[in-house]
Write a structure and sequence with these properties.
The chain has a domain of 174 residues: Rossmann fold (3-Layer(aba) Sandwich). The chain contains eight helices and ten strands. The C terminus is likely disordered. The protein binds adenosine-5'-triphosphate (ATP) and magnesium ion.
Length: 258
C-alpha cells in the first residue's frame, strides 16, 4: 500500500524581519497518523501550525493540504479547503467569554443559519462525547475550569467533523491526571473519527498516545521517529529534550537572536 500524505510542507522559509523562524523546513504527515510536534518555547511551533492552515503565509516553499497547494491557490480556494478539512484547537481554548457554552460550541452552525433551539441537542451530544455534562451548555466560560474549557474547545472544533485535527498545546496548565484524560480523549477522538491528528505538546505523556514524534529545532524538522521507541532514541537532541537535561547540544539561551 502506498503512503498517502495528507499534509506536505516543502522547503518552507518564513522570517519576521531579520528573525528567521522556518528555514528549509520539510515535513510530511501521513493520512490517519497521530503526530506530536515538540520543540523549545519560541522555536516556531505555533507559526508552523499557522503556516499549515494558511493563517500565516510562508515567504517561500509549498504547503499542500489534502491535495490542495495552499501557496498557489487562488481566491478563497485555500481558505475553503482548510475550513473543510482542518479543525484547529487553539492554545488556551480561545472561547468567547460573552457567549454561553452552547453558543460557543454551536457557533458555526448558528452562523450557517440554524437556530439555537435546533443546535442545542447537537451541542449536548458533542459535550457528552468529550466527557462533559450536557447541563453545562447554559454556563459561561468564566464558570468553567481550565480542563473543562479545553474540552469545550475540542467539542466546538468537532462540530465540523474535520478530517485533520490540529491542537496547539492542548494540555498546558493542567494537572497530570487532567493531562492524561485530555490525551486519552484526543486518542479516542482520533480513532473513532479516523482523523489525522497533529499536536504540539511539551508533555512527555503525549508519547504514550502518538504514533510518531517530530522535533522542531532552529527552524527545521530535525528528527521524525516512532513514539513507542522515543525513550530509547539515541539522537542527542531528542535524548536531551525529552528528559529536560541542561547538558547537551541544545543551548539554554531561551530565545536566540536568529
Ligand atoms: N505575527 C508575528 N509577527 C512577528 N513575530 C512573530 C509573529 N508570530 C510569531 N512571531 C515570533 O516567532 C517566534 C516563534 O513563535 P511561536 O509562537 O511559533 O513559538 P512557539 O514555538 O509556538 O513557542 P511556545 O512554545 O512558547 O508557544 C517567536 O519569536 C515569536 O515572537
Ligand atoms: Mg506556541
Amino acid at each position: 500500500m502506498t503512503t498517502k500524505y495528507i499534509i506536505k510542507l516543502i522547503n518552507l522559509h518564513k522570517a519576521f524581519g531579520p528573525k528567521v523562524i522556518s528555514r528549509d523546513l520539510n515535513l510530511s504527515i501521513v493520512e490517519g497518523e497521530f503526530l506530536a510536534i515538540i520543540g523549545r518555547s519560541g522555536e516556531g511551533k505555533s507559526v508552523l501550525l499557522k503556516q499549515m492552515i494558511g493563517l500565516i503565509k510562508p515567504d517561500s516553499g509549498t504547503v499542500i493540504v489534502d491535495d490542495t497547494d495552499l501557496t498557489t491557490a487562488k481566491g478563497h480556494e485555500a481558505q475553503d479547503k482548510v475550513f473543510q478539512s482542518c479543525g484547529y484547537v487553539f492554545q488556551f481554548a480561545a472561547l468567547l467569554d460573552s457567549l454561553s457554552v452552547a453558543e460557543n460550541v454551536g457557533i458555526t452552525l448558528i452562523e450557517a443559519g440554524m437556530t439555537e433551539k435546533e443546535v442545542l441537542p447537537l451541542v449536548k451530544d458533542k459535550l457528552l462525547s468529550v466527557g462533559l455534562d450536557p447541563a453545562i451548555a447554559s454556563r459561561y466560560p468564566s464558570e468553567l475550569s481550565g480542563g473543562m474549557k479545553k474540552r469545550v474547545g475540542l467539542a466546538r472544533t468537532l462540530m465540523r467533523r474535520p478530517k485533520i485535527l490540529i491542537y496547539d498545546e492542548p494540555t498546558t496548565g493542567l494537572d497530570p491526571i487532567s493531562v492524561r484524560m485530555i490525551h486519552e480523549l484526543m486518542r479516542k477522538t482520533h480513532d473513532e473519527n479516523k482523523t489525522t491528528t497533529v499536536v504540539i505538546s511539551h508533555d512527555p505523556d503525549v508519547f504514550n498516545y502518538a504514533d510518531r514524534v517530530a522535533m522542531l529545532h532552529e527552524g527545521r524538522i530535525l528528527y521524525v521517529g516512532d513514539a513507542k521507541t522515543i525513550w530509547q532514541e539515541e539522537n542527542p537532541y531528542i535524548h536531551q529534550f525529552i528528559r529536560g537535561l541542561s547538558q547537551g547540544p541544545i543551548t539554554m539561551i531561551s530565545e536566540k537572536a536568529k
